[in-house]
Design a protein that fits this description.
Length: 220
């Protein structure tokens, strides 16, 4: 057997092993249950060895084993062999659902990543938690002082305090304005991202299975 054929066989075993493991997990079976159902074989001490070897892609896989896996897992042979990412057999609804899911999956992942990056960037510009606490305390202080600002005795005795309170009130207002601008900027950033995603950008898709490039027949 040529080196090219050996390499191809190894790739095929890897693909079938990978997809067999995925199909077993989708079917909700552990290795012990799978081995008992596929080979009707029981071994309490080494029950997972045969399934593990198959799923690792290191062993040659017999055709009847592939057939039995499709039967036990309820999946299509195309899924096991890597031709299709459609798991169900003869299920048109599942086929279309899978196509829709795969078509939007890439866009959703990309949009989520961009959204998280934008939010993270915006949050980094927001004032720290201690600043918010200081703002609230300052606001309470200025409100208390304003209640006494109409008292002539208090006004005469604590004129400098009233002046400082006015300056503090002005700074609190500036702080709140800055915070509001940052929140608005975050909101606009997210809206812009969502609008760009809805503008008809080309959607990317990812397959559940590995693809194999089959050799093209040589021209005679």
């Amino acid at each position: 057997m040529s080196e090219e054929n050996i390499t191809f066989d190894r790739k095929l075993y890897k693909v079938v092993g990978h997809n067999a493991k995925l199909a077993r997990e989708i079917a909700g079976l552990n290795r012990k249950e799978a081995m008992q159902l596929i080979w009707a074989y029981r071994n309490d001490k080494m029950f997972a060895n045969r399934v593990s070897e198959l799923e690792c892609g290191e062993k040659k896989i017999e055709l009847k084993t592939v057939f039995k896996m499709c039967e036990v897992y309820g999946c299509s042979a195309d899924f096991i062999l890597g031709f299709s990412d459609e798991f169900e057999r003869n299920n048109l609804a599942a086929k279309y659902s899978g196509m829709v899911f795969q078509s939007i999956r890439g866009s959703v992942l990309e949009a989520t990543e961009q959204l998280c990056m934008n939010v993270s960037k915006s949050i980094s510009h927001l004032p720290p938690f201690q600043g918010e606490l200081l703002k609230n305390s300052s606001k309470q202080l200025t409100e208390v002082i304003k209640k006494h600002s109409h008292d002539l005795v208090f006004k005469a005795e604590y004129a400098d305090v009233l002046e400082a309170a006015k300056e503090l009130e002005k700074n609190v207002a500036m702080f709140e304005m800055f915070f509001a601008k940052q929140m608005r900027q975050m909101e606009l950033s997210m809206m812009s991202l969502l609008e760009s995603e809805n503008s008809g950008d080309e959607m990317s898709s990812l397959k559940l299975t590995h693809n194999i490039e089959f050799r093209k027949p040589e021209k005679v």
